Amino acid sequence: MANMHKHPVRGLRGIDDALWTAFDHATKEAGSDRSATLKAYMEWYVRRDGAVAPERPPAQ
């Protein structure tokens, strides 16, 4: 099936376009993507074993 994803799609509400775009640029600058960075942050936030907070890109 063409529209089947490997993982379930999770929606986020209340995030404005400017924040979403800035987050996209920042994660790409850090060599990652939004999904991987959000997943890493959530694993760190709930204290999963071995999880570390994702790196932030340097301030511009």
Précis, in short:
This protein has 60 residues and is mainly alpha-helical.
Describe the 3D structure.
- This protein is mainly α and 60 residues long.
- The protein has one domain.
- Helix content is 42%, strand content 0%.
- It contains two helices and no strands.
Count of folded domains? 1
How much is the average pLDDT? 91
Main structural class = mainly alpha
Oligomeric organization of the protein chains:
single chain
Report how far apart the termini are.
43 Å
The coarse overall form would be globular
The main sheet comes to: none
Query: How many H/I helical runs?
Result: 2
Please report which band the strand proportion falls in: under 5%, 5-15%, 15-25%, 25-35%, 35-45% or over 45%: under 5%
Mind telling me the C-alpha Rg?
A: 13 Å
Topology of this structure?
Blueprint: H1 17-29, H2 34-45
Sum up the structure in keywords.
globular; 60 residues; mainly alpha
